[in-house]
Every structure is written in structure tokens, then in C-alpha cells.
Specification:
The complex is a heterodimer of chains A (144) and B (418). Chain A has 2 domains: 52 residues; 77 residues, Glutaredoxin (3-Layer(aba) Sandwich). Chain A is 41% helix and 12% strand. Chain A has 6 helices and 4 strands; from the N terminus they run αααβααβββα. Chain A has a 4-stranded mixed beta sheet, with helices on one face. In chain A, helix 5 packs across helix 6. Chain A starts with 14 loop residues before the first helix and ends with a helix. By secondary structure, chain B is α/β, with parallel strands linked by helices. Chain B folds into 3 domains: 203 residues, NADH-ubiquinone oxidoreductase 51kDa subunit (Rossmann fold, 3-Layer(aba) Sandwich); 73 residues, Ubiquitin-like (UB roll); 94 residues, de novo design (two linked rop proteins). Chain B is built from 17 helices and 9 strands. Chain B has a 5-stranded mixed beta sheet with strand order 6-5-9-7-8. In chain B, a hairpin with a 5-residue loop joins strand 5 and strand 6. Chain B is globular. The termini of chain B are far apart. Classes of the chains: A alpha+beta (144), B alpha/beta (418). The structure holds flavin mononucleotide and FE2/S2 (inorganic) cluster. The site of FE2/S2 (inorganic) cluster has 11 residues of chain A, from helix 4.
Chain lengths: 144, 418
């Protein structure tokens, strides 16, 4: 079984998997990439743009090699997610929405990532880290 | 009542990477019985008789939905397992997917037989990308055992959108569109994915199916209350000493869950149900957990006496406003205005008409929104106004006092600082 929806013939249904493949290859969905996808799928560019901008995990501009997504929802906020965000800011010198100058890390604040039992929690790319403290953050970031 | 682990029975008892351990615990007995001894209509009947309702939040009777899809005439029928779990405070599906993927796949296999679907999707939220490969490997093992001759199961990963957990938005997302809610009718059972009859069930709902088929509808419906049968898996977080996933018989009390099991001591309020969560004040902690009272998808967040109610409701609204798909005006604009008002109250910059404005808006949003997000967005606001009105009134009085005392100038300079 493949993760791609290969058994579906409709070009439309291939769009999200196709955008994800491009994302994996290029790190973001630029105008040029969307143009190419539009050409290949036969869908108008505005449709592609509409889909790309709808989803939080389809960035239009380049992000760092490692994207840190810190949860800002209530259960994490209550367990001092702010201190974790502060720790990352201090360690990397970037604020949420920014990327380090060397292009290694980006920092984002995201909604609940389904790890509230380990609050405060974050994802670095697809890896989940829970029960964070500002001290642990330093160790984790050093491991990258 | 102690914990009653049925849905979670195999979590920790089997190896999620090895189907043999699942088979060793009686896994796929339900499926084999359904395949070899029951007609599809009988399976639907069993599920109907069991009284199982949807565990994803809405609580719609599962068997009834299946019957509609079963009886619909179409070339192709689809089954979708909703593993989008975006509700703030829920992580039970993550727990199930990590510990017992075979239980879920068995449920999907049986549901496929019952409704006559040949294609199934597991819609997995992007945040759970780390579960994608293990899930695919589990599906491959089930296939190797010959249990998937009737059905193809694909994992479809989302791309970061909470509203895609809403069934009509979810189907749009699979179809490669923006995940926006659809106007209904038609309902998915009649015209769903690509216009074909489609059943969408939550992970936990499907986890119950093998047990119902193996042990019978009567066994299942003996558990719970008049309208809520079986057990419910809760995700407990917030001010508790033992946050985690707990499974209780329907009709157990909130107190048992948060105090006896999760170790809460100091309780100002508990939010039960996620985004649209009811806010239950501490003095009502004996409330029973069931569809008749409060349940939703089983997100339970405990707040101690140091927590500020307006902060809580504001954080909630921030989430809803952020995740509103924007298609309908009451939800898109309503959450925006509510966020603005709550933000001002939080910053002690309230105004005299704020409470009325919140209550007015709440009504419009509940009546006129396209999907559950907007319809239920104001529930925490209304609940908090009902049980903690004094905190709102106080905040407004403080705001008015501050403004008159300090004068316009000072509050302006405060604005500049922000
Ligand atoms: C805004 C919104 C978000 C939802 N998110 C989820 C979700 O993450 N998981 C889920 O199972 N159901 C979710 N639902 C409920 C689904 O629309 C649907 O009712 C459910 O998947 C049906 O399955 P069930 O009958 O087994 O509960 C959501 C509903 C709304 C309105
Ligand atoms: S609130 Fe942070 S993971 Fe759920």
C-alpha cells in the first residue's frame, strides 16, 4: 500500500498528495511550483493557491530545515508553554514566525497537537516532544 | 466505579507492531464471525441494537447511519475513519492508534462488510505524521493474514486544519479542496465522498465494533445509561496530577474521573468536550458523564482556583477564530468579534455592553452557522457567563473605574505599550 492515493484517477484528488510531494522536495510552495502543479493537473492556479493557503502545514515561503511547532492551546498554556517559547527564543534568537539566519530552525506557535497529557509539548518536524522545560529545550535543540 | 477498559483493553497488552500478539488475545474473532456467520444486514442490526453512538463528538447513533448507507444504491461506497483529532484537549485517538492499530483496523474491516464499502480511508491529522508508517505497516500485516480481501484501506494525511475533522470538510479535503464545511442535506450517508454514499466514524467508535460483534449487542447495551451505552475514553489534562487517557462506563461521574483517577484536588471548573466544551463549575463535580449531560469527544481539562475564567474562554476563542474555515459569516465574523471583546476584558479594557454583546452574538452564531464549529463556539462563553458571571461583571467594573480614574491619556499610553 502506498501513502499516495494512487488508485484514484481524478486529478483533483491527487492535488494534496502532489503538493505534499513538492513540499518535501522544495521545502515550500513557491509561485513557480504552484504553476508547475497547475500545468500538470490541469487545475487553474487560483485553485491551487486556494488549497495551499488553506492548510497550516503547506508553507508558501521557505522555512528552516527544522520547524519547531510549539503548542499554544490551553492545556499547554496552563503548563507554562510561555516559558518554553521564551527558552527557544533565547536559545535561537528568533521569535515565532521567524527562521534562524543559518536557515536551520524556524519557530511557530500552533494549535493543540494532541499531546496535552505531556503538556507543554512541541513538534520538531514530525517528532513529538512532551513535558518540556526551558532546560530540556536547550538539550533538545543541541541534539539537532 | 473503577476504570473499565474495553476499547483500551489491548493497549499495552499487545505489541502494536506484531499482529500475532493481537491474534493471541482473540483479535479478529469479531471479524471472522461477521465474515463467516453474519449477513451484512445482521451486522448493522447488531450495531443498531447495541445502542452504540458516535464517539467523535456529535453522538449520532452508529447503526442507524450504517443502515442508511447500507440501503443506499450506488456503484461505490466509502468508509472513512476520522483520525483528525484536532479538538483541544483530546489525545485518546493518538493513544489508541499508537497502542492498538489492529483493533481499529478490525473495526474498519467489519464496518466495510456491513455497509458494502470497498474503499476505506483513515484520515490522519498531519500532527500525527509519526503514526503514519506504523499504521501502514499494521494494515499490511492485516492484509497478509487475508482479512482485507473485501476492502482497501489507505491512510490519507491532512495538512494542518482543525475544521477538517468536521465530516463534510474532511471529505472536501480528501477530494483535494479547501476543507470547508458543506451545506447539508445531502448527508454523507446518501451523497458523500465524490457524491457516493459514505460513512464517517471516529477512531473510538470503530474500536467498539469488534467487541460488539464478538460479544453481542445485549452485552454492550447492558453498560451505560438509558441513552448512552458502553464506555467512553476520556483525555484528561490541565490541573491534575495524573493526566492521561481513562476509560469509564458511561454514566460514571466527573468526580470519579478527575479526582479519583486523574488526581485533581483543587477544582474551580472543568471543561468537558473540547472546543464547544461545557464549563462545569467545581460545585457540580458530581455530574454524570453521558450524552444526556456533557460528553463531546471526551476532552476533559481541569482548572484550579488560581485560573482566570476569562483567560480560559479567551484562549478557547483564539483557537476557534484561528480555525474557522471562513465560509460562513456568523462563524467567521462572530468568533472575530468575540475574540476582540474577550481580549479587551482580559486586558481590563471592558465596556458596559460587553456581556449583552456576547450573549447576542452567541445566539446568532448558534442559529446561523454552517457547521458545529460556529454553532457551538459560544458554548464556553455562555457557560462561563452562567456560572462565573461575577468575574465578567467585576472585570467590566474594574475597566470602567480604571478608565475614569486614570483618564483617557493614561489608557492611551497603555495602548502604545502593547
Ligand atoms: C469543527 C468540528 C471538528 C470535528 N473534529 C472531529 C475530529 O477531529 N474527530 C472526529 O472523530 N470527529 C470530529 N468532528 C465530528 C465529525 O463531524 C463527525 O460527526 C464524526 O467524525 C462522526 O463520527 P462518529 O459518529 O463515529 O462520532 C468534528 C466536528 C466539527 C463540527
Ligand atoms: S494543548 Fe498542547 S498538545 Fe493539546
Amino acid at each position: 500500500m502506498t501513502k499516495e492515493t494512487s488508485s484514484i484517477t481524478s486529478g483533483r484528488a491527487e492535488l494534496l498528495p502532489a503538493l505534499k510531494r513538492e513540499l518535501k522536495k522544495n521545502g515550500c510552495l513557491t509561485r513557480e511550483i504552484m504553476d508547475t502543479v497547475a500545468g500538470r493537473s490541469g487545475l487553474p492556479l487560483n485553485e491551487i493557491y486556494g488549497v495551499a493557503t488553506f492548510y497550516a502545514y503547506l508553507p508558501l515561503a521557505p522555512l528552516g530545515q527544522y520547524v519547531i511547532k510549539v503548542c499554544r492551546c490551553l492545556p499547554c498554556d496552563m503548563k507554562d508553554a510561555q516559558a518554553v517559547i521564551g527558552g527557544i527564543k533565547q536559545e535561537l534568537g528568533i521569535a515565532p514566525g521567524e527562521t534562524t539566519a543559518d536557515g536551520k530552525f524556524s519557530l511557530e506557535l500552533v494549535n493543540c497537537i494532541g499531546a496535552c497529557d505531556q503538556a507543554p509539548a512541541m513538534l520538531i518536524n514530525a517528532k513529538l516532544y512532551g513535558n518540556l522545560t526551558p532546560q530540556r529545550i536547550v538539550e533538545i535543540l543541541k541534539s539537532y | 466505579m473503577p476504570e473499565k477498559r474495553i476499547v483500551l483493553g489491548n493497549c499495552g497488552a499487545t505489541d502494536p507492531n506484531d499482529i500475532e500478539t493481537y491474534l493471541g488475545k482473540g483479535g479478529f474473532k469479531g471479524f471472522i464471525k461477521a465474515r463467516d456467520r453474519l449477513k451484512p444486514g445482521d451486522i448493522v442490526d447488531q450495531v443498531k441494537k447495541s445502542g452504540l453512538s458516535g464517539r467523535g463528538g456529535a453522538g449520532f447513533p452508529c447503526g442507524l447511519k450504517w443502515e442508511l448507507a447500507r440501503n443506499a444504491k450506488a456503484k461505490m461506497k466509502y468508509l472513512i475513519c476520522n483520525a483528525d483529532e484536532g479538538e483541544v484537549g483530546t489525545f485518546k485517538d493518538r493513544y489508541i492508534l499508537s497502542h492498538d492499530p489492529f483493533g481499529l483496523i478490525e473495526g474498519i474491516c467489519i464496518a466495510g462488510l456491513a455497509i458494502g464499502a470497498r474503499q476505506a480511508y483513515i484520515y490522519l491529522r498531519a500532527e500525527y505524521h509519526f503514526l503514519n508508517d506504523p499504521l501502514c505497516r499494521a494494515i499490511a500485516q492485516v492484509k497478509e493474514k487475508g482479512f482485507l480481501k473485501h476492502l482497501d484501506i489507505q491512510v490519507f494525511e491532512g495538512a494542518g486544519s482543525y475544521v477538517c475533522g468536521e465530516e463534510s470538510a474532511l471529505m472536501d479535503s480528501i477530494e483535494g479542496k479547501r476543507g470547508e464545511a458543506r451545506y447539508r442535506p445531502p448527508y454523507p450517508q446518501a451523497r458523500g465522498l465524490w457524491g457516493q454514499p459514505t460513512i464517517i466514524n471516529n477512531v473510538e467508535t470503530l474500536m467498539n465494533i469488534p467487541h460488539i460483534i464478538a460479544n453481542g449487542a445485549a452485552w454492550f447495551s447492558a453498560m451505560g445509561t438509558a441513552k448512552s451505552k458502553g464506555t467512553k475514553v476520556f483525555s484528561v489534562s490541565g490541573d491534575v496530577s495524573k493526566p492521561g487517557v481513562y476509560e469509564l462506563e458511561m454514566g460514571s461521574s466527573l468526580k470519579e474521573l478527575v479526582m479519583d483517577l486523574a488526581g485533581a484536588v483543587d477544582i474551580k471548573a472543568v471543561q468537558v468536550g473540547g472546543r464547544h466544551g461545557n464549563i462545569i463549575p467545581g460545585h457540580m463535580i458530581d455530574i454524570v458523564l453521558s450524552y444526556e449531560t456533557c460528553l463531546g469527544p471526551g476532552a476533559v481539562v481541569v482548572f484550579n482556583s488560581k485560573r482566570d475564567i476569562i483567560d480560559i474562554v479567551h484562549n478557547n476563542m483564539h483557537f476557534l477564530n484561528d480555525e474557522s474555515c471562513g465560509k460562513c459569516t456568523p462563524c467567521r465574523e462572530g468568533t472575530e468579534v468575540m475574540l476582540e471583546i474577550l481580549g479587551r476584558l482580559r486586558g481590563v479594557e471592558g465596556a458596559a455592553g460587553d456581556i449583552d454583546a456576547l450573549e447576542d452574538l452567541a445566539q446568532t452564531m448558534a442559529l446561523a452557522s454552517l457547521c458545529g464549529l460556529g454553532q457551538e463556539a459560544a458554548v464556553p462563553v455562555l457557560d462561563s457567563l452562567k456560572y462565573f458571571r461575577a468575574e465578567y461583571v467585576n472585570r467590566i467594573e474594574q475597566s470602567l473605574f480604571l478608565r475614569s480614574y486614570l483618564g483617557e491619556e493614561l489608557s492611551k499610553s497603555k495602548e502604545g505599550e502593547r
